[in-house]
# Entry
Amino acid sequence: MSNFQISRILAILTISTLTFLVPAPALAVDTGIFELDANALDQSAGTDDWESFFVTPSTAHTTRSTGIVSDSSPAVFRNGSKDIDDISAWRYDLGSSPPKDDMLHAYAAAYSVDSPTITVSGASDGDLVVYFGADRVSFNGTASLGFWFFKNPVERDDTRKRFINPVTGQPATHANGDTLVAFEYTNGGAITTVKVFEWLNGALIDKGSIGTAATTTPGVYCNTAAGGAPADSICGATNPGGISLPWNGSVNAGQFFEGGINLSKVIGGDACFASFMATSRSSSTSTAALKNFIIHSFPVCSVSVTKTCASPQLLGSSIRYSITGKVLNDGGGALQSLSLSDNPPLDANSLGFFTCDANGQPTATSTASAPLAVGAAVCYRATITSSSNGPSDTITATASTGTGSVSDSAGATCPQLQVNTGMTVTKACDVDLVQQNSQLVLKVNYGGSVCNTSDVALNNVKVCETHGVSIPAGQTPCTVSPRKEFSIGTMAAGACANYQSYGTANYFPSDADVGSLTQPEISPVQFRDQVGAVGTPPAILSLPTVSAIPAEAQCGLCPATP
# Structure
């Protein structure tokens, strides 16, 4: 294969009753969740078989599965690559194996047992049950297949012909708990023993051979209570006659293999695996020569996170948002030590964990963030403070699996803070006769108030007074000359100020509006002037300057004739 991107169409299965590898005859035909029956066809409603993952995901169950992985770019292990060595020592070359050892497809699916009542011997609540298989070009004589389950991500690097960890980009390595299940079967399809190995502290540990016996389903062999493993905790099956594979057409006897194992019972430890590898081999021993292989991501454990960003609140030059969401353990093993990180960062001491309501939002009831059992969820609430209005925000949830960690991210675009802006200004005036340079002259006194009717504070507020100036359309008293300005400064939302207290609010007019001077009517002498005001919203809102509708005052030397 040339591309092994992680398939995200997978989810973990939580079921009310799981019947895993039960005694014959129900054992092989229908376990209640997967048909281990020496063929790939989905023949029972409500159960899975490999056909379920080839055509469409099962509608009855959601599973963590590799799907049907094709060996689109065949490769073979170089001589000297052994199971007993670390993955970092394995090497391969591109090319096909002899037909007997050449696998065409491989597949795996994991299920987590979660039932209130366990009625089948050998299966317990929380057990990880994995089914797996492969089909080959041909089958002659004795055949051996091995199936690796890796804790760390493992991927091909065809440039250097070795395996890498796609997360770190470094050579792939084993982790404690990596498990190898090796089968060997005869030309007649009989599977008498299964060998199980576990990687611990830098070495491959032989967990022993588990004997199997034929069941009443042709081609299916399962273990008994002997050998240290619970009865029916491991099975293998080959097709005793010709069958049809939905992805490969008709195949002859022995070309198709499938197996199942209760890893929790046979190996124990946490159930979090990241990659799956099927291998053809010279025998089921740990020192066997490895031949063809097919590898794929198999993220059995996982975590998912959701996020909403809402309720913007202006804090001076920044905006605070409320962040909420849900973290779900949608994998096959318990998760520990949950942590959340956010970009932009969460406000200090704002993060809290709570139970979830039906909409996946936090309630008012606090709860611990971990551990998270399979299928369990916890909700969170926090705040962020941003220097932009409507930022994009991404939160990442990370949890420990015991041997590693899993993570997931969710993004949200925070809503822009929408505000109303406005200003009002008033003006009044009167006229005095004052002595100036031994003359009586007219002085116009004026005053008034300015109010910020916006939802937010306004900065750089100023009042502008003009007289004897014609104000063109589209301009204000604050954009024409000459004018007099009164600096107000910052005004809180809803605040008002009397602008005459900020300077000398008067002027000596040079002309006036004078009516007809013919008798018997004497028209009053009128003085007209305008006042306007402007202010600037907080820069973070990216709003235009706010202008008040200009106010005009008229005052006269003589009152108008009634």
